[in-house]
UniProtKB/TrEMBL annotation:
The chain crosses the membrane at residues 21-40. Keywords: Membrane, Transmembrane, Transmembrane helix. Residues 40-111 form the Type IV pilin Tt1218-like domain. This is Type IV pilus modification protein PilV.
Length: 179
């Protein structure tokens, strides 16, 4: 009679499937890490765009301040002060290239060109000027900032918006200066 030895399975045979579970757990952890990195990238792009809009608003605000410093006579007359509502452009651009312009006409041309450039540079770009020569001028740049709308129009002048204007993502950047 043949005697069969009852052998215990070797350690190699007992570990069957455990390596596969470890690999699946590692892949799951790596997948969650990659999803987190993708979310971080999307958030980073959003904040980068916001920073770009705010930087452009700062540059255009300084641009208008420089235009007013170059035409102090127009600033003294109050020709740069605007009273229209968000999104409006002056009716026409004065032709200062062929004829000598008054400081008032130069101010109108500056406002027209500035608002045109703003509307092309940033989404919803528009601007206004308020104040006086003695008290200082305030240049406000409006732009449409992508976001959740939680701080809509935080620094915006309420009278600048026509009734029915959606202000949910409009932000304002204001600069005060003396020419």
């Amino acid at each position: 009679m043949a005697f069969i030895k009852n052998r215990l399975p070797s350690s190699r045979n007992r570990q069957r499937g455990v390596g596969m579970i470890e690999v699946l757990i590692s892949i799951t952890i790596a997948s969650f890490a990659l999803l987190g990195l993708a979310g971080l990238q999307v958030t980073s792009l959003k904040y980068q765009k916001t920073a770009q809009f705010r930087s452009l608003a700062s540059q255009y605000s300084a641009d208008m301040a420089d235009r007013m410093r170059a035409n102090v006579a127009g600033a003294k007359l109050g020709s740069y002060v605007t009273t229209d509502t968000y999104g409006a452009l002056p009716a026409s651009l004065p032709n200062c290239a062929s004829a000598a312009c008054t400081p008032d006409k130069v101010a109108q041309a500056d406002l027209y060109n500035w608002r045109q450039a703003l509307s092309q540079a940033v989404a919803g770009g528009w601007g206004e000027v308020s104040g006086t020569l003695t008290g200082g001028f305030v240049v406000t740049v409006y732009f449409n900032e992508p976001g959740d709308g939680s701080a809509a129009g935080a620094n915006c002048r309420a009278a600048a918006f026509a009734s029915g204007t959606d202000k949910s993502n409009i932000r304002c950047f204001s600069t005060t200066f003396l020419p």
